[in-house]
């Protein structure tokens, strides 16, 4: 156990390396890969590989002086810890040297932190550190003293990214208007700016699929149109504190109306797909196919009327609005804080609700949870690259599986409602009986699998908390 007393400076670039080499200074060069498995305000647990060694470090404290405990570990422990890392991998070239008898290092960051360069000086006591003055020749290379700036701590670089990254939202909009690129949001981006970009990308998809459907009447295109409408509304509801409440509610309601216009056709399509694998249901298929054809005509008519979706132009203007007039309470907070908090809040609520289910719970309670699961999936789809948590992608697959179980349950409830509207017959009764049995099995499977799934959810939830505490 020892104390770490150091000053840290932000460099303009890596030119100082060439300068010092020309002056005859000899470096020890290390290629470093490091990551964290625990990050709080006063403690961090870090793993690092350098020069063929694997090192585990626990640091306690903050600011100029910190307590540090370091020990070597084997490659197996390092790899196991890597599965549970929080934040991005930090990759950097470190140049070690002595300056006026003080141990120094220059870190040139690579990969996601490419372009960031820092200089650190270590001291034997606090007084020397406080009154330390850099050599005159360093002034041309130093941008600022960041010793007490938490943004430049390695643990925060891991979860927040480079604090010097700047964004031009208008340039991003121009790119999105001309190409369909995958979004990866920097953790330190303002939440409002991130959601403006995200909603703009989804809006482009909505318009594209709407126009394509009116030309082709392709069912898959209509499905994608519906999905993007639901994504917008779900994210607006989940992150309701990014924009002001009234604006959020107005647009949320409009997206709901537009999405709901396609719901019945979706129900018919899914039911017909199920019926295609059933025997002796020709009469039922005929009845539902006719209803589906009629619903298709209604949708074509609805989407052909500009009045039903002209609010999309208002939504685009709103997203391009640069003033703070419509800001919600969390508009200016960084994305990693807001996204991690809201996703974790949804996870905690989900844990509580799914564990409250039992054999006597009404199907309606299962259906409400399905909606929450879908919101979670949409949020994770867009922010899993921003909030790196060990096994996050694996958890997304589990989340999809459990959500599909809930979805299958609700589908069957809807099918029973459709069958109730048909003329009674033995074939209808037989099919209803079969669907009831499937509902029972789905409920049973959900109740059986929930415990293990909640255990996985708790682990993810705890790790997400590191991003905003």
TrEMBL record:
- CHAD domain spans which residues? 188-462
Q: Name one Pfam family in it.
A: CHAD
| Residue intervals of the CYTH domain | 2-159
Cross-referenced InterPro entries, in alphabetical order? CHAD_dom, CHAD_dom_sf, CYTH-like_dom_sf, CYTH_domain
Q: Which PANTHER family match?
A: CHAD DOMAIN-CONTAINING PROTEIN, SLR1444 PROTEIN
The protein in question is named CHAD domain-containing protein
Tell me the classification of the organism that encodes this protein. Answer: Bacteria, Pseudomonadati, Campylobacterota, Epsilonproteobacteria, Campylobacterales
